[in-house]
Design a protein that fits this description.
The chain has 16 helices and 10 strands. With 366 residues, it is of the alpha/beta class. The chain has 2 domains: 269 residues, TIM Barrel (Alpha-Beta Barrel); 69 residues, no CATH class. Helix 1 packs parallel to helix 11 and helix 13 crosses helix 14. The longest helix is centred in the first third of the chain and has 15 residues.
Length: 366
C-alpha cells in the first residue's frame, strides 16, 4: 500500500480508501465487517461513510467493523459527514454518529455536499464553522473538512477560503477536465484531497472500449482507472465504494505492480481522452424524491447509455432500451415530469435532468 500525507495534518493515509456507500448486503453486518478487515489487512486505513448512506446503517456497520479492526490491532481513520448547519443540530447528530461508529472522535468530519456557493453562504450564516470549531476544540473531531460537488472555478473559490483542512470531491477519468481547478486550491492551501467516484459509479468498467486511453499493456480497465488517479500526486486518497469482497480484492490487486506515470506521461494520457465525460450520472441517488414518482436515477442511468452509445449500434435508442430491458420501466413515464426542478436542485453534478427527461419522453412517443 502507498501512503500519502493528508494535507498538513501530519496523518499518513492510504492511497486506496474504503467507501461505505455501496455495500451489497448492508444488513449482513458480519459480511460488511469482513470486507473492512480484508481492506485493512491490505493496508487501507481510510474509511469514509455518512449518516445518509443506507439510512444510517452504513455508520452502524462501520462501528461493527472498527471494533473488529481494534481487536486485530489494525489501524484506521474514520471519516463521516453532516448536512446539519446549526450548532444544536450538528451536536445532536455527531453524538448519534459517535455511538453508531463506536469511536470517541471522528478524524475527518465533513461539511457535506456543497452543491452551490449560495448554499455554502447560507450554511455559514447558520454558524456551521463556529460549531465545527467547537467540536474540534472539545476533541470530538480532529479535522474540519468539506465534501463538494462544485466544478471549475467554484470549487477553487470554496477551497481558497482557507477554512478547511481537507476536501472530498468527485474526480475520475470521465470528468477530470472540469474538476482540475480544485487542485489549484489543494496545492495553495496544502489540503488533504480525497476523490470519490473513481470508477464513475460503475460506468468506466462497463465501457472498456471507450476508456482504452487509460490502459497500459496488461492492465485491466478497473486497475487502469484507479492508477490514473494514483498518478496524481495531489490526491491523498482514492475512495472506492465496495459492493463485495471480490471488489475489495480487485482494488488491492491494482496496487500490486503499480508504476506511477511521470507528469509528462500523465499529461499525454489526459490528452488521449477521446471525449469529455462530464455530465454522466454517477448514480448517487440524491435526486430520488420526485413528486411525480419518476425514478430519476434509473432514467439518468438510461440516459448515460445514450451518451455513451449514441449513435446506437442497433435501431433502438440506447436510453429507451435500457429502461425497458434493464430496469423494466415504461419510458413514457418521463412525460409525467412537471419541471419543478427539485431533482436538478439536488443533483450534485448539475445535470440538466429536465431536458433529458423531455428527450426520453419524445423518443418514447415515436
Amino acid at each position: 500500500m502507498i501512503y500519502r500525507n493528508y494535507g498538513q495534518t501530519g496523518k499518513q493515509v492510504s492511497l486506496l480508501g474504503f467507501g461505505g456507500m455501496r455495500f451489497g448486503h448492508i444488513d449482513d453486518h458480519d459480511e460488511c465487517a469482513r470486507m473492512m478487515v480484508l481492506a485493512a489487512e491490505g493496508g487501507v486505513n481510510y474509511f469514509d461513510t455518512a449518516p445518509g448512506y443506507f439510512e444510517t446503517k452504513s455508520e452502524t456497520v462501520f462501528g461493527k467493523g472498527f471494533a473488529e479492526l481494534r481487536r486485530r490491532n489494525l489501524p484506521y481513520y474514520v471519516a463521516t459527514k453532516t448536512f446539519k448547519t446549526t450548532e444544536k443540530d450538528i451536536r445532536a447528530e455527531i453524538e448519534a454518529q459517535l455511538r453508531r461508529l463506536d469511536v470517541p472522535a471522528i478524524d475527518f468530519y465533513h461539511i457535506w455536499c456543497i452543491t452551490n456557493l449560495d448554499n455554502w453562504q447560507q450554511r455559514k450564516k447558520d454558524g456551521i464553522l463556529g460549531a465545527f470549531q467547537k467540536l474540534k476544540d472539545e476533541g470530538l473531531i480532529k479535522h474540519i473538512c468539506v465534501s463538494s460537488h462544485l466544478v471549475q472555478d467554484q470549487i477553487r473559490e470554496l477551497l481558497m477560503e482557507g477554512v478547511f483542512e481537507g476536501v472530498l470531491f468527485g474526480y475520475s477519468a470521465y470528468n477530470f477536465k472540469t474538476r482540475e481547478a480544485a487542485f489549484d486550491a489543494v496545492r495553495a492551501k496544502k489540503l488533504g484531497a480525497v476523490v470519490m467516484n473513481p470508477l464513475g459509479g460503475g460506468i468506466i468498467p462497463q465501457q472498456e472500449k471507450l476508456f482504452q486511453f487509460l490502459t497500459r499493456p496488461g492492465e485491466k480497465t478497473v486497475a487502469a482507472a484507479l492508477r490514473f488517479l494514483w498518478d496524481h500526486q495531489d490526491i491523498s486518497v482514492t475512495l472506492v465504494g465496495f459492493n463485495d469482497e471480490q471488489q475489495v480484492r480487485e482494488a488491492l490487486a491494482a496496487m500490486d505492480g503499480y508504476t506511477p506515470r511521470t507528469e509528462a506521461e500523465l499529461a499525454a494520457t489526459k490528452a488521449g481522452a477521446s471525449a469529455s465525460f462530464e455530465g454522466i450520472c454517477t448514480g448517487c441517488g440524491y435526486c430520488d424524491d420526485c413528486p411525480q414518482d419518476i425514478p430519476i436515477p434509473k432514467f439518468m442511468d438510461a440516459y448515460n447509455q445514450k451518451l455513451l452509445n449514441d449513435p446506437p449500434q442497433s435501431g433502438t435508442d440506447p436510453a429507451i432500451g435500457r429502461l425497458k430491458w434493464h430496469w423494466n420501466l415504461d419510458p413514457a413515464k418521463a412525460k409525467d415530469c412537471i419541471a419543478c426542478r427539485q431533482c436538478e436542485t439536488a443533483c450534485t453534478q448539475h445535470i440538466d435532468i429536465i431536458t433529458r427527461l423531455k428527450t426520453i419522453a419524445e423518443k418514447a412517443a415515436v
